Amino acid sequence: MAGGSHSQAAEERAASRGQSEANRRLKYISLAVLVVQNASLILSIRYVRTLPGDRFFATSAVVMAEVLKVLTCLLIILLQKRCSVKQTASFLLDAVVLQYKDTLKLAVPSLIYTLQNNLQYIAISNLPAATFQVTYQLKILTTALFSVLMLRKSLSRVQWVSLLLLFAGVAIVQVQQEGKKEASLSDGANQNYTVGLVAVVISCLSSGFAGVYFEKILKGSSASVWVRNVQLGVFGTALGMLGLWWNDGAAIAERGFLFGYTGMVWCVIFNQAFGGLLVAVVVKYADNILKGFATSFSIIVSTVMSIYLFGFHVDPLFTAGAGLVIGAVYMYSLPKAAGGSSSPSSSSSSSASSASPRTTDGGAEMEAFLPKAQGGVTPPPVVVLSSH
Questions:
Q1: Is residue 374 within 8 Å of 222, Cβ to Cβ?
Q2: How many Cβ atoms are within 10 Å of 31's Cβ, its own excluded?
Q3: Which of 139, 229, 237, 249 could form an S-S bond across to 66 if both were Cys, CB 3.0 to 4.6 Å?
Q4: Does the pLDDT value for residue 298 go beyond 90?
């Protein structure tokens, strides 16, 4: 009996070590995915928007990304329903149409996210990728402030200090850019630093408000993150088409919806549509500290790649400002001391991005893809860089 007991204990310890190793690998994979998605989207948008030749319509790219995202979410829901078209149609009819009041709640954040997507194209078209990546971290500040004002959440002293450092770091980067105009900007006839800066600031404000508003109106909701993305996508597509008609309607009627599309443009659209959904799957394996690291690494990767791709010049002032931002992001993501209040939504900890489904059953690694009761997922704020 004693031998059997020791053998069982040894097996349990081995299983525990194996599970711990698997979780560690998943965290590293999550970190890699978050870094690649955050950095690649910004760098690729910057690249395609600064290429010579015919420039595609950003409004059409936003609409196309929304359509692809909705189709992907519909496919995932279909798989959850064991490929039953009838069950899927019945479920969507109930979740989207019959519960129209719940669906209409998403009209406001969807409008803001659509505006935000278009503003990001404008900002990245007019700012160096590294400068945009650093400045865009102001969304952490705006999300924190809106969380305090709208959700009555409290911040720790470390978080308040990190927000001050974040603001100081971004301010230093802006002083550096104003004092020394980058060669790649001065060479671009259609680039305007002021327009880019205004666009990224408005985008940060809209990101903070939309994330907190989304969290507030959907608190306690039982709908899955895929249903939420369908609802957001339906509104996003409609509002995106409206913006397309308003801003580029005549030009698109003359040149076509897909004017200027190249293989690289399609890569950007697929990254924007599927990147956020991919992050939604992996981010549940990443805690706030890991997401903070991912954002910090993304800034470093964007800066290094900008040097080689766009001739970006890094001087001591930019290095100091970016260093403050990276440190602030990491500080903000640190856990509070025991007994502290919950920190603002984790949507502020990572760009590109994105929806983060949190499951009540953490042991089901691919729960988001498996058929299950819809009450199993509570969607947090969805950030669109990558996807709402």
A1: yes
A2: 18
A3: 237
A4: no
Residues 142 and 226: their CA atoms lie apart, in Å, by 26
Distance of CA 91 to the CA centre of its chain: 27
Q: Could you give phi then psi for residue 295, rounded to 5 degrees?
A: -65, -45
Q: 7-61 pLDDT, tens per residue?
A: 666 666 666 676 667 777 777 787 788 888 888 989 999 999 888 888 899 999 9
Q: Tell me, yes or no, if the pTM score tops 0.85.
A: no
At 92, the amino acid letter reads L
